[in-house]
Design a protein that fits this description.
The chain is α+β, with helices and mostly antiparallel strands. 58% of the residues lie in helices and 13% in strands. Among the domains are: 84 residues; 29 residues. Keywords: Membrane, Transmembrane, Transmembrane helix.
């Protein structure tokens, strides 16, 4: 939809102010640190060039990330521009005044009609697959939420399940390794090596699993309901049993190929190498962040489920009409007069179906039918949010930005420690130290630095995931509107109306139509929602129908106003007929009086030269009765 400025606002608030404020604070902190690091380059160039280059790299990253966060946050805080055509239509708008709408729609006119007729809502698609059904069993009313929320819920449930399976598989794998190495030579060394490999594998798997989360408000997540399968679970279970056994067998073969002295050196070195790795600490960090993210997401989803009551009802009204009007007046009056008076905020209604053949119904006893489906302009509705939703959303937003900031600071710390290890390596090259000293001075601190860098990446990933989840619940905007659907069919009757004393001397003739029709009308009060984005396409997103409630007052008002318009127009036509009938009778009276007196010209009826021919044409009482019957004056016949 194009942005259409109007002085009359739609009263759609900016939902991203708090989120943008917190994001701007993080961006300002990162920007300040980045500028500080860049200012330190000049003094370091004369004393420590490698550290100056590190400051340039980290400072450039901080300035870039800080400006992006600060700019994006300020963009969210600033004015939220909404055009007059917002929000998006439910289906393709076929109204004459419709703008060039490009946003995707989830429905069409036939689907909307079936929703009102069958009292159902196709938005609530049945989940496919046993895992999706299990998720909807845990959250019974998850099916009545918009698709992005359902996709996020299923995605998080799959992440939790895979995480638990992976941890259980790790425990099983540790038991399998213990069983494989029991009673074998070098069991202690082999158990330590394989255990470190399994811990690193679990760490990498959980990190990639939770850090990888697509944008919940991407176009694919809005228009497609995701499907979750159990293939990943099967691979995890198979790998938990097969990989440890294969790894253990490979280690046993490697151990057998070593010389006795090499085995003794490796056995003595393992207690010294083990402190280098920090997989236990990183695993703890990953599990804690994953549980915190999942807990906040569960609270948000459960609170959101109860915000909109489940309803799929509509009001019905049917009757028969018989009016002295052309049937085309049914749909033109309904669309352009009655429903236009019901519009909101002086905005045109959304017309999703306008099909009728009344324009071609011009013959006697010709049948006609037509359909009209209209939505009154949706108005924004501020629904009451549970306290748990507000607090979880705000705390999750703050926590996500803190994790992102902490990850950036750890990245700075890790990069700075890398230079210390480089200088320590140069020192080791200059002096001859034994293995124990080299491990204590270089490898153990280097392991801690590697752990810091991995922790920074984990925190950045978890912060990004948590921010995206919370952003989804900031973005939803609710609307309320009325949908009206009418089907009408009937038969046309036609008569020719003449003006004048009789049909031979008529001054004009007119075709008069009347119709006998039956209609069936449906109406509902719909609650819908869409997800806004901060940018030029803020509300150009599909809209989801969530609740359909009966609206007897609205449908009675529409049909009542339409019948009042028919009666008013019918009375006007009858008044015109009565005036024309009285005019014809007055003409006949003047003609009879002129014939009785013999002075037609004096009465202003004919010219003097036509008097002779008209005097011979005297209308008798019997002929007058025939004229009255032919003109349709049943009251005088």
């Amino acid at each position: 939809m194009a942005f259409e400025y109007g002085a009359q606002k739609l009263n759609i608030r900016n939902p991203f102010r708090f989120e943008g404020l917190v994001r701007s604070i993080r961006g300002a902190i990162l920007l300040a640190i980045g500028v500080y690091l860049l200012f330190q380059i000049q003094p370091l160039l004369g004393t420590d060039k490698p550290r100056a280059w590190v400051n340039l790299l980290i400072g450039g990253l901080f300035v870039t990330g800080g400006l992006k966060a600060l700019g994006g946050g300020l963009f969210q805080v600033m004015r939220f521009f909404v055009g007059r055509a917002a929000p998006a239509s439910l289906a393709k708008n076929v109204a004459r005044e419709a703008v060039n709408e490009r946003e995707p729609t989830l429905y069409n006119s036939k689907m909307l009609h079936n929703m009102l007729m069958s009292k159902s809502n196709p938005t609530f698609i049945e989940p496919t697959g046993w895992f999706a059904r299990a998720v909807h069993s845990v959250f019974p009313n998850l099916i009545v939420t918009p698709w992005p929320i359902r996709n996020v819920a299923q995605n998080l449930a799959m992440k939790l399940t895979k995480s638990f399976v992976a941890i259980a598989a790790f425990l099983v794998a540790s038991l399998v390794v213990t069983m494989v190495f029991s009673g074998t030579e070098g069991a202690d060394v082999g158990s330590t090596v394989i255990s470190l490999i399994l811990q690193a594998s679990l760490l990498v798997y959980l990190g990639l699993l939770w850090v990888k989360l697509g944008n919940p408000l991407s176009r694919s997540n809005m228009t497609t309901l995701g499907q979750t399968t159990s293939k990943g679970l099967a691979l995890v279970i198979i790998g938990a049993i097969a990989v440890p056994i294969l790894t253990a067998q490979g280690w046993l073969g490697f151990w057998d190929s070593l010389h006795v002295s090499a085995r003794q050196d490796l056995a003595g070195l393992m207690p010294l190498l083990e402190p280098v790795f920090r997989t236990g600490s990183l695993l703890t960090l990953t599990i804690v962040c994953a549980l915190a993210t999942a807990a906040i997401a569960v609270v948000l989803i459960k609170a959101r489920i109860g915000m909109v009551p489940i309803a799929t009802s509509s009001s019905e009204l049917n009757n028969s009409w018989r009016f002295d009007l052309h049937p085309r007046q049914i749909f033109t009056t309904l669309r352009d007069l009655v429903l236009m008076q019901k519009r909101q905020q002086e905005l045109p209604n959304r017309v999703y179906l306008d099909s009728n053949d009344t324009g071609d119904a011009n013959r006697e006893n010709e049948q006609f039918n037509g359909d009209l489906l209209v939505e009154i302009q949706p108005v924004v509705e501020d629904r009451e949010e549970p306290k748990s939703l507000r607090w979880a959303r705000a705390s999750g937003t703050i926590a996500g930005q803190i994790l992102l900031l902490a990850g950036a600071l750890l990245l700075w710390l890790g990069a700075d420690r890398v230079m210390d290890h480089v200088y320590a390596l140069d020192q080791l090259r200059a002096t001859r130290l034994d293995v124990d000293q080299a491990l204590n001075l270089l490898f153990v601190p280097a392991g801690a630095t590697a752990a810091i860098l991995l922790a920074s990446l984990l925190l950045l990933g978890f912060g990004r995931t948590l921010s995206r989840i919370c952003h989804l619940f900031w973005a939803e905007i609710f609307f309320k509107s009325n949908l009206f659907d009418m089907h009408c069919e009937g038969t046309v009757m036609r008569a020719t109306h003449y003006r004048g004393a009789d049909r031979h001397s008529a001054s004009s003739e007119q075709d008069v139509f009347s119709f006998d029709a039956t209609y069936f009308a449906l109406a509902t009060e719909a609650v819908s929602s869409t997800f806004a984005v901060s940018g030029q396409q803020n509300l150009e997103q599909p809209r989801y129908l969530l609740s359909l409630s009966p609206c007897d007052g609205f449908i009675n008002s529409v049909v009542g106003d339409l019948e009042d318009q028919f009666r008013r127009r019918n009375d006007e036509i009858k008044s015109e007929k009565q005036a024309d009938r009285e005019q014809r009778l007055d003409y006949i009276r003047q003609e009879q009086e002129a014939r009785r007196t013999g002075d037609m010209a004096a009465q202003g009826l004919v010219a003097p030269e036509q008097r002779a021919s008209l005097e011979s044409d005297v209308v008798s009482d019997q002929d007058r009765e025939k004229i009255a019957r032919w003109e349709g004056d049943t009251a005088n016949s």
